[in-house]
Amino acid sequence: MKRQILLGTALVASMSIFAQKSASITVKVDEGKQIIPKEIYGQFAEHLGTCIYGGLWVGENSPIPNTNGYRTDVLNALKDLKIPVLRWPGGCFADEYHWMDGIGPKENRPKMVNNNWGGTIEDNSFGTHEFLNLCELLNCEPYISGNIGSGTVEELAKWVEYMTSDGDSPMANLRRTNGRDKAWKVKYLGVGNESWGCGGSMRPEYYADLYRRYSTYCRNYDSNRLYKIASGASDYDYNWTEVLMNRVGGRMHGLSLHYYTVTGWSGSKGSAINFTDEDYYWAMGKCREVEDVLKKHIAIMDKHDPKKRVNLLLDEWGTWWDEEPGTIRGHLYQQNALRDAFVASLSFDIFHKYTERLTMANIAQIVNVLQSMILTNDKGMVLTPTYHVFNMYKVHQDATYIPLDITCDEMKVRDNRTVPMISATASKDKEGKIHISLSNIDLDNSQEISINLPNVKAKNVSGQILTSKNITDHNTFESPNVVNVKEFKGAKFNKGTLTVKMPAKSIVTLELN
């Protein structure tokens, strides 16, 4: 890193002098070994607000165009993202969800009160069949979060049997009665969610024993093999990870972790679209702090599990701002600005570095809640800036991660954090194509980036860019394309050096072949 810029309560005078900055990157093409699991690009759908009802599901009789009850516009947009895994039904909702209420004829399913999220009455028309059939339509792995907060061992064990047994068993026959002959393939099973909080207010020692009990009775049926995930820590709770690694260890395949870019859990969290430049740079610092959090949890896991048999799964992450004015309290509906796109790109750049242990990440949430991909109403949908980052970055799924070194300006921001003005990641796919994603975090200054690619011979370089006039810009139903992806022509490759001229506040993905 070089040249520091200070940002206090107001931007320093030098920041008002717009200029082109320079940065350099060395891509270590020959050192790439680790595969970036496609599951790093996972999604999360909770019964919360209009994520499920109105977002993913409208029912077969809805005037909104649908495919067997799923919104056709949303379904097609999600197919384009190549979603690898989808987590459901929560979240906090999971530990109050009783799966038998969501099977059988829809007219016979009991209603329920969603106590966690606004007290909304739900009719259970979206249940096990609807979720697992959606995963088949999206060609993604289902990730079931089981109820251990208010449920029983028997209830979860029977749910696993219902979903995955092809035998002549009671639950398999009940599934057949409800219209599904062949069992689904269900790989990921979460044993509870946030068991330290909304999932039961448990201590880690108690939860560790409870996990051992539940996981014993969640069995593998026929050819289905469960990947069991223990409910892990919230951001800085390293003791939870220590206790679970010590007391559960190899009985779990994965351990979860939650980390949000949020100002705090009391009072206002700030607006998603009305914020200052200082607020923006603070968010960049906060989201990048996930790297230190990952390192510390990984260090604990390495101590107990040096062979890395237990994976770390960041199955909730993203921005958390105030709900939009005029929306239902508790539904967590927030807009999505260009700032959120940068949180996504910077986060992915970090996640790619730690995939020896970090094997899944699930952004919160897929539609209409928190840092969503899509916003919907009765007339249509809007793709958010975050959606576009996921689409630009999908080229890194299952590609080989390539390490790189960056030299660039950095800035001191609020809460004593330091933010580099350039973030980047690189990978090589199975066809030998190299993809490089770059973020120019600087709001005011363009960057000329010199990228050293030793021993690389490329004939073509192409790219996409995501940017807008203002960092607060966002897409609405009236103006859905304010922040959108365009062709990028500011990169040239010559004799092992890629020169990239990036505008201020822009995200670029390049392909060399």
Summarize model confidence as the mean pLDDT: 95
What low-confidence regions span 5 or more consecutive residues with pLDDT below 50?
Answer: 1-17
Question: Beta-sheet strand percentage?
Answer: 25-35%
Count of helix runs = 10
**Can you summarize the main beta sheet?**
8 strands, parallel, barrel
How many angstroms separate the termini?
Answer: 29 Å
Q: In angstroms, what is the radius of gyration?
A: 23 Å
Shape by Cα distribution: globular
What attributes characterize this protein structure?
513 residues, six-stranded antiparallel beta sheet, 10 helices, disordered N terminus
Outline the structure in words.
The chain has helices at 72-81, 128-138, 153-164, 170-177, 204-217, 238-247, 277-288, 290-304, 338-351, 385-393, and strands at 2-6, 20-27, 42-44, 66-67, 70-71, 85-88, 112-114, 120-122, 141-146, 188-191, 227-234, 254-261, 311-319, 358-364, 374-376, 381-383, 400-402, 404-407, 409-413, 417-420, 422-428, 434-440, 446-452, 461-467, 484-487, 491-494, 497-502, 506-512. With 513 residues, the protein is α/β, with parallel strands linked by helices. Helix 7 (277-288) packs parallel to helix 9 (338-351). The strands form seven sheets. The protein has an eight-stranded parallel β-barrel, surrounded by six helices. A six-stranded antiparallel beta sheet has the order 17-21-22-28-24-25, with helices on one face. It is globular and about 65 Å long. Strand 7 and strand 8 form a beta hairpin. The protein is built from ten helices and 28 strands. Helices cover 22% and strands 28% of the residues. Residues 1-17 have low confidence and may be disordered.
